[in-house]
Write a structure and sequence with these properties.
The chain has 433 residues and is of the alpha/beta class. Helices cover 24% and strands 32% of the residues. It contains nine helices and 18 strands. The strands form four sheets. The chain has a six-stranded mixed beta sheet, sandwiched between helices. A five-stranded mixed beta sheet has the order 12-18-17-14-15, with no helix packed on it. Strand 8 and strand 9 form a beta hairpin. The protein is elongated. It starts with a strand and ends in a 34-residue tail after the last strand.
Length: 433
């Protein structure tokens, strides 16, 4: 059986600095047609070299297939071409090169309020969107109450959507797209507009669509949701497809090869000897901090929840000693201590006499901090006394990942607990002992 979506050598070119493009949607094409005579009068239409220099390829030679019932994520950094690809699949814009074949009824949720008529009410837009999908009024009637209840906008259904907040827009848009039972559901990064409770409902609805063998294309920076919902993922980088595989492998590739690109100026090697975060009362005996992922790759400034972290701390002992330890601490940006790893906690710690340059390596098998930014502090103790401390040696951003295997990542508290829950079959079986 043929794939439900076939993408063959698709490329998309935009021209910067022009009022329109012959490769855009209807509005862009009309704007380009009206602007072209004026450009010709100014003599700009003959400047082919300028047009060539202003060309920007948002996508280059993208090819992949999606089978019926597959759930595929598209991940990549900002500007990688994810939204452009979805717009081509949704037929909002045409590719400059290549072909796309879609075999099935499609619903797209790409931007807040896409497909809404601002002057129509929420109720009227439900029927409008249903009609665009090719549904009969009786089919929409049967789904109407479910859509209204899911969106949770109740009394505002009779209000023109131009008066809706962005949150109301996205709640209604997702409710329509998810409940009108398309064979293919395309969802861009729009769930971030809703609150946490609504995002959970959306993820549940997408999981339900997956269970019903619907085909889902999902773009999100929520890597936990990607890993929980999607069987497969592709990674885009600067308009090119650079990886295709299981969602877990794709996320690993993205984090190791692309996510840290924006932080290349922030090296994984930190010079502690000249740090400005050291108090004047300390002499610089801490020399260098090196940070790596659990797999031994240099760390950018992002680490998924629960991932491994390796810290290598270089320091100098001025005098011979058998009692010396180093520590690495994780604080909130405001300075609240969350947790500390200390060499004194190591049961197999050797206490032999040392002097001069030394190195401690700390391996943390999993770092269960909730998503957020953290300060990393480094300390050195000799004979039980703190002799050096760098308060803000480096910064670490912990990002969402599927820590519990459910797609749900808590954001409250400071760290995540490993815990298991069981619902008893009957309340009477629960007893306190």
């Amino acid at each position: 059986m043929a794939p439900i979506i076939e993408i063959d050598r698709v490329s998309k070119e935009y021209r910067l600095g022009e009022t329109g493009s012959p490769y855009g949607n209807l509005r862009e094409t009309l704007a380009y047609a009206f602007a072209k005579p004026w450009s010709a009068l100014r003599g700009s239409s003959n400047d082919h070299s300028a047009r060539k220099n202003n060309s920007f390829w948002a996508l280059r030679d993208i090819s992949f297939d999606v089978e019926k019932g597959e759930t595929v994520a598209i991940i990549g950094s900002n500007g990688a071409g994810k939204s452009t690809l979805l717009k081509i699949l949704s037929r909002i814009t045409d590719p400059t090169e290549g072909t796309v074949k879609v075999r099935g009824r499609m619903a797209s949720l790409l931007e807040v309020g896409t497909g809404f008529h601002p002057e129509l009410t929420g109720r009227e837009n439900i029927y409008l969107n249903g009609s665009i999908l090719g549904m009969h009024k009786t089919e929409i009637d049967a789904k109407f109450d479910d859509i209204a209840n899911f969106a949770g906008i109740g009394k505002f259904l009779g209000t023109p959507v131009k008066r809706y907040s962005s949150g109301m827009y996205v709640r209604l848009a997702f409710a329509i797209a998810a409940h009108l039972d398309p064979e293919i559901l395309i969802v861009d990064e729009v769930l971030a507009v809703g609150d946490a409770a609504f995002q959970k409902k959306c993820l549940g609805k997408m999981a339900e669509a997956c269970a019903r063998a619907r085909t889902v294309l999902f773009v999100s920076h929520n890597l936990a949701a990607v890993e929980a919902l999607c069987q497969r993922a592709i990674v885009l980088q600067q308009g090119s497809l650079v990886f295709s595989g299981t969602s877990k492998d794709a996320i690993r590739y993205y984090l190791q090869n692309i996510s840290s690109e924006t932080a290349q100026s922030r090296s994984h090697i930190v010079d502690l000897s000249a740090s400005s975060s050291r108090s004047a009362k300390y002499q610089p005996q801490l020399k260098r901090l090196e940070l790596y992922t659990g797999e031994g790759n240099p760390l950018g400034d992002e680490l998924p929840v629960g991932a491994g972290l390796k810290a290598v701390i270089h320091f100098h002992l001025d005098n011979r000693s058998t009692s010396f330890d180093v520590s690495i601490a994780f604080d909130t940006p405001s300075g609240q201590r969350i947790c500390t790893a200390h060499s004194a906690y190591e049961p197999d710690r050797l206490h032999e006499e040392r002097i001069g340059d030394q190195t401690f390596t700390c391996a943390i098998s999993n770092l269960p901090l909730v998503p957020g930014e953290y300060k990393i502090g480094v300390g050195l103790d000799v004979s039980g006394q703190e002799v050096d401390w760098v308060d803000d040696a480096a910064r670490l951003v912990v990002i969402k990942s599927d820590y519990y295997g459910t797609g749900v990542v808590p954001t409250r508290g400071s760290f995540l607990l490993q815990n298991r829950w069981e619902l008893n079959e009957k309340a009477a079986e629960v007893s306190l002992k």
